[in-house]
Amino acid sequence: MENTEIEYMYAEMIGKLREINGPEVNTILDFSTSLAICQEALSMLRTWFEENRLAVEAQEIHFFKYVKPRFLCWQIYVTKLYEMSSMAPGD
């Protein structure tokens, strides 16, 4: 299932995360903004799904198995990376 609108939303989310946290996104410099970006992208994805109900069951399965996790994993990643960095001993 190739959808340019979804790919654009994903690229936009990644671009914003890189803009705030650096190109590698291996540190979270602004947790609240990074989390808001992920939540906004998931909200846009949810709206897209509701507006474009998938007619074929296989498309819906693909959406929940592959498309949504691509977005959701970034929210989990940002949260876990922030948790790990906040538990590190201070310099």
Notes on the protein architecture:
It is a single chain. The protein is 77% helix and 0% strand. The protein is mainly alpha-helical and 91 residues long. The protein has one domain (4-86). It is elongated, with a radius of gyration of 15 Å. The relative contact order is 0.16.
Topology record:
Elements: H1 4-21, H2 31-51, H3 57-87
For this entry, give a set of tags.
single chain; 91 residues; mainly alpha; 3 helices
Biggest β-sheet, characterized? none
Total number of β-strand segments?
Answer: 0
Tally of separate domains: 1
Shape type? elongated
What does the average pLDDT come to?
A: 90
Radius of gyration: 15 Å
Structural class: mainly alpha
Would you identify the regions where 5 or more consecutive residues have pLDDT less than 50?
A: none
The fraction of residues assigned to DSSP E strands is under 5%
Sequence of secondary-structure elements: HHH
Quickly count the helices.
3
The end-to-end distance, rounded to whole angstroms, is 48 Å
